[in-house]
Amino acid sequence: MGKKSRVKTQKSGTGATATVSPKEILNLTSELLQKCSSPAPGPGKEWEEYTQIRALVEKIRKKQKGLSVTFDGKREDYFPDLMKWASENGASVEGFEMVNFKEEGFGLRATRDIKAEELFLWVPRKLLMTVESAKNSVLGPLYSQDRILQAMGNIALAFHLLCERASPNSFWQPYIQTLPSEYDTPLYFEEEEVRCLQSTQAIHDVFSQYKNTARQYAYFYKVIQITTGYNLEDDRCECVALQDFQAGDQIYIFYGTRSNAEFVIHSGFFFDNNSHDRVKIKLGVSKSDRLYAMKAEVLARAGIPTSSVFALHFTEPPISAQLLAFLRVFCMTEEELKEHLLGDSAIDRIFTLGNSEFPVSWDNEVKLWTFLEDRASLLLKTYKTTIEEDKIVLKNPDLSVRATMAIKLRLGEKEILEKAVKSAAVNREYYRKHMEERAPLPRYEESDLGLLEGGVGDSRLPLVLRKLEEEAGVQESLSLTETVSKAKAAENGLVNGENVIPNGTKEESSDTRSEAKERL
Fold it and tell me: Domains (ranges, CATH) in the chain?
């Protein structure tokens, strides 16, 4: 494709690589594999483990410096080759162009007006690097023998990319030449930039991602040393415009309702004013609760486990129907539980658990909003900086892009929690007033029958409660009074888990259309 002669394998650098023996690297990767295969560290030890793993990774990177396949020039130099290759193989290349949008990086800019719902971009399957194409490549023999490679498509694709990158005659070289040399995901952060993520909910995923990636590298390094010897009808990937674009506009696509933590960890950027942003909150009914069995049964009938991970949302209301239903059951009295378990109207009451218009009782609403207010306040106390302090730091013109992203993430989490506290306080007082005035409760018989799926029956569950926001998690179960009494323990990390900082780890020394748009 015109520039294949510009592919080169680095062998220079500091010259150190020439004296590094394969055995030395193998010993380091063996040590790394052992370290990454150890059990999860105890509370407060995550940062220590991360730095130990990182030190080993940096040793390996230093010794392997100069061995990577690189391309002369800048990635944008290869864009014409990419477009020519794509066009020759059936992909669409009209109506847009690749442009550097500076802070947002490279993206697509419309060169003509594009109408909403217009199909403007498509890529045939033969241009896609897939697990199937990996199996049919030089990677095939290894893939057929290694069970882990077969079970992990992402690893197979990573190997596929590395193999094709090393081949000057690769069919995908026009595409590979345009890939970035590094990314802004936490895997590429400097240690001090990762430190900015401490206390955020994302930090556990960052540690886990780094450890898992290092373990996978170490395992497959040893394996390689030992074993060397979409539109189905048109068979293509398509992109349809979700809104009108004018010529000159940057083109965005919708990747789904991702939180900013997911954007940072997996995509390497922070999306300001993300209406889908949220903060995880782990809740569970304690098995020592005198009413545990009854609460568990009511929750089961609503399709909700007794322990799960929910979310506090950026938008109003801050809680979903699932979380509202859980909190109502969590705060129920014995008599209220019986009403949801016994009698002809019990199943109908289950259907309204997630409907904010039909409280269980005024007292129940006061309790649940008080609980949520205390829990969100408790989580706010676990951060090492305040909202005001983060805003001041963000004004520093010398702050790196990655550090800025990390601080924006933790600031966003705190702002969501602060909103939840204020919203809960308003609701608490609203329902307290109704309770004091002895206002009549709305009758559950008046509930929206649209909550029912296919009719009424004991085997049917409310559609709105059917799917949880997150996978169930294991966490500390708190009673209503325990939440308040443990507020003082927040500084020592006794929240949302055992003796551990819930949304991070201790340091070693102690709009509708614009929603969740991403760069194409």
Answer: 4-129+172-184+202-254 (3.90.1410.10), 271-440+457-519 (3.90.1420.10)
Residue range 370-383: mean pLDDT, rounded: 96
pLDDT, tens digit, 9 for 90 and up, residues 63-97? 888 777 778 889 999 999 999 999 999 999 999 99
| Model pLDDT for residues 99-127, shown as the tens digit of each residue | 998 878 899 999 999 999 899 999 999 99
CA-CA distance, 175 to 28, in Å (whole number)?
33
Q: 94: which 2 tokens?
A: 């009209």
Residue 5's Cβ-side half-sphere holds a number of Cα atoms within 13 Å equal to 1
pTM score = 0.58
The residue written with tokens 């490679």 in the block is 149
Query: Exposure string (b/e) for 130-148, b if CB count within 10 Å is 16 or more?
Result: ebebbbebebeebbeebee
d(CA 285, CA 287): 6
Please report where in the chains the tokens 């539980």 appear, as a residue: 337
CB atoms closer than 10 angstroms to residue 331: 22
More confident residue, 60 or 499: 60
Q: How many CB atoms lie within 10 A of CB 167?
A: 17
DSSP readout, 395-461? Answer: T-TT--HHHHHHHHHHHHHHHHHHHHHHHHHHHHHHHHHHHHTTPPPPPGGGS-GGGSSSS--TT--
The length of the chain, given as a count of residues: 520
| Distance between CA atoms of residues 514 and 520, nearest Å | 14
Cβ 214 vs Cβ 36: under 8 Å:
yes
Confidence grade of residue 235 (pLDDT, cut at 50, 70, 90)? low
How far is the C-alpha of 214 from the C-alpha of 220, rounded, in Å? 10
CB atoms within 10 A of CB 318: 23
